[in-house]
């Protein structure tokens, strides 16, 4: 990919006998707003970092209201999903930056302190311009070599920056080892499982005990069905006596959510993931699985509407989730049972349009979770039913 870095040096020579004040400035113009992804997970539009504060303004926002800020350091630009054009004012000089729309979108700055040029004197001013694909190595390289404060935020890592970027760096390391980002995602999944192995062990032990206690829980509900308060007291006494945490089964799911979102974000925003293949029919890990259950994954000779494209990997994810549920205690409430039975189908449909790399992560995570849970339940001192 072609990336441009320009150091623009502006020189003013005063050949008169008068003194003049000049205010150096720079400006990026975009004539028309492009078709944007328009999804909360990604910012496309005007952005900048001003005195350590990240500012992101959508095209529609700037049409409605101009944005202005004074800063002592920073940079500004206009970004697409994978590309950015940016301006970096001269260091150690304060400036005002404006994001504005007057028939065109403008991101500009002007220095707030005048540059005084006296008689027969020359002054120079420098502005850095970067036009680049948002490759992590490239963006981080510019940030480090040119000492641009927080220029790595040109890539929309999001509020889980502390997870999303490290996960990308680890996946990129695994990619360089294996040559395949799909395998890198699988290795990341294994690392996450190892990281939370002790917590999952605790959860699965509690779930095994919950499973063996189900008959007793059903008996208590029948015995105290007319006295809800007494039932709650007996249930809590049972949990305390058997040292069971009834909400521990939620822990494996809860701890996965930030990592799930971070991997989704990584797949969505990084250009390195674009057009990266896995094996078989997955030619782009950043796009959905192109196969569909409704034509038997391509075996039947017809295409299906986009809303019926539920690929092989999403189906595998749903099946592994259903199998995982079979290892868990069955909810005593019939309505809860029906909800839990429907949940794998629901997630299969919901996640079918998501990047295939994310679905691969979730599927492999289910398989590893089942393996760990099975081993723990076999080794537990409580005999399960």
Structure description:
The protein is of the alpha+beta class and about 375 residues long. The chain has 2 domains: about 5-155, Distorted Sandwich (Beta-galactosidase, Chain A, domain 5), CATH 2.70.98; about 165-380, no CATH class. About 45% of the residues lie in helices and about 20% in strands. The chain contains 11 helices and 12 strands. It has helices at about 60-65, 135-145, 160-180, 180-195, 195-210, 215-225, 230-240, 250-270, 310-325, 335-350, 355-380, and strands at about 5-15, 20, 25-30, 45-50, 55-60, 65-70, 75-80, 85-90, 95-100, 105-110, 115, 120-135. It has a 6-stranded antiparallel sheet with strand order 1-12-8-7-4-5. It has a 4-stranded antiparallel sheet with strand order 3-10-9-6. Helix 4 (about 180-195) runs parallel beside helix 11. The radius of gyration is 29 Å and the shape is elongated.
Mean pLDDT: 86
Low-confidence region ranges: none
Helix-strand sequence: EEEEEHEEEEEEEHHHHHHHHHH
Kindly estimate the percentage of residues that lie in beta strands according to DSSP: 15-25%
Instruction: Provide the structure class.
Output: alpha+beta
Please give the radius of gyration in angstroms.
Answer: 29 Å
Proportion of residues in helical segments: 40-55%
Instruction: Tell me the number of strands.
Output: 12
First-to-last CA distance: 59 Å
Helix segment tally: 11
How many structural domains does the protein architecture include?
Answer: 2
